[in-house]
Amino acid sequence: PPAPPALAGAHPLGADHGSVIAELVRSGVGNLPKGQGEAGVAIGLTRGQTLRSIQLPQALIAMLPALVSQLVVVLKDTALGQIITYPELLRAAQILGTAFGNTLQTLTVAAVIFIVINYALTALAQWLSRFLSGRTAGATAAGPGIGTPTAGAGGPPEDAPAPATERCRPRR
User: Fold this and answer.
1) What angle separates helix 103-133 from helix 89-100, to the nearest 10 degrees?
2) Which of 6, 34, 55, 67 sits 20 to 30 Å CA-CA off 25?
């Protein structure tokens, strides 16, 4: 028997967006300084405990704006479910508009609802990015987030004294 429409729409979208979110988590943890994991192992935690207790909480702060942006994409992709008769906002607007004979007005309201939700989620992602950028290690070449600060992007000023390793090198 064919799959119910809800399952036929939710399964592929869930698999697709689940893989994107898994990659976000993997890259968020991968961008942490190596010493974070080593510190957890040094105090006697297993690798799994280190990941759950030390690395994931730090990585989630850095990945939160990207996760909210992915939520915007999920919201937009649910409109694809209308093609396979999964009832969602657009399909409900079409049915309602057809029933009362005012399809254009109903679809306009649905479009405004989509725009407002997407704008609110995008604004939330941007606010989170600005808010959380001060809670991580500083700006990196790729933007705010966890990593080694770069010069000119939150790193040491240009006229700061050279690190000790550079001061001790013999001149040629």
Assistant:
1) 160
2) 6
Give the C-alpha distances (Å, rounded to integers) separating 59 from 53, 76, 108: 11, 26, 40
> Which secondary-structure segment (H or E) carries 2?
none
Question: Is-contact 88 79, C-beta < 8 A?
Answer: yes
The encoded tokens of residue 28 equal 């968020």
How would you label 22-48 residue by residue, b for 16+ Cβ within 10 Å and e otherwise?
eebeeebbebbeeebbeebeeeebeee
Mean pLDDT of the chain: 76
Q: What are phi and psi of 38, to 5 degrees?
A: -65, -35
Residue-wise pLDDT tens digits, 111-141: 888 888 888 888 888 888 787 776 655 544 4
